[in-house]
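#onboarding

Welcome to the new folks! Below is a worked example of what a typical request in this channel looks like: someone posts a single protein sequence, and someone else replies with the predicted structure as tokens. Don't worry about understanding the tokens yet, we'll cover that in week two.

Example request:
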Amino acid sequence: TPNTDEDASAELDPLIAQTVQKIADVLNHLKRELDDRDGVSVTARGKFELAVGSQEFEIGIVSSDDGDHFPLSVKATLQANKSATNEKSLTTLTDGKRARSDSDAELENEIVSRKRRQLEEGKPLYPHQSTFQEIPEEDGMSFISKEDLREIMSRLRDDIQEDTSECVNHVQKLLRRFKQEWHEKNQRDQELASTQPRPPFRNSISTQDAAFPTLGEEKDSQDTSLQHVIRQEAKIVSNQIRWLEECRRVASDSHDKREETWRTTSAGFHDRSRQDRETFQNRMLHESGMHTQTLNQILNEVKSIGLHTQSMKWELPSSLSGPAYPPQPVAPACPSQTHPKAP
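Example response:
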């Protein structure tokens, strides 16, 4: 009926109603995208339950009555028959979960003794909340004095210390219980293993000088005790450890030898290269000095030849020497030509 729907919607949490509307919008958007891509109508169905404290809501997808082509809707309904069971389960959870033994159950119950005692005595679990409520409000703002703040901090500190001590004691008791049960279990396993017949071990591989140490070739008899087998296995493990250490030492020695050989070879190569380089440099310097000396000698010879040439006086014969005076001018062939003036 419409009245019942209105009552159910009124009981819903506003946040849950907004979430339901968002889920419906997302599903319709996805449905439209798939319809546009594939060209076929998409149907969505399903529901899930949401528990908020003692209330439990059933959120389900409701298809349209007109067909799959119309938008979907999401509806949230309050499960009235499950709220009482949830409250009952919440009250039973405080009694402690059933453990494997009665002693463990007692240990688990001790951790909530203080809170349970406060609930039975009618005291609030958080006394500082009442302190906040008792503080008068002035001008719409609450004022906390320094004494109230110190009292609240002392109460919180006492609660934390008490909870911490109870948790530590609880963990210590559980550890002692676990250790005791572990020892008892080991004793039972040893007794059971000693009473039951054991099959013989596998045939062992004969040990060689450079082979991995294993069991001997002799087979274990039925009368061999578990302590003897454990001792034998421990001896084999120690031999294997020594064998591994020896292999590691041999590998380290061979690596050191290879590294030393490489270093020696590399040092000799670099030394020879350095000697060849120095010899070549010295030879080039010697040849350069010889060339410089030769060039200096040539330059000195050229200079001496030039000085000697400048100091020499050349005497030419008379046949090669020119006239002492200039020649007389010749009369022109034509009278119209003017005679040049004598110098």
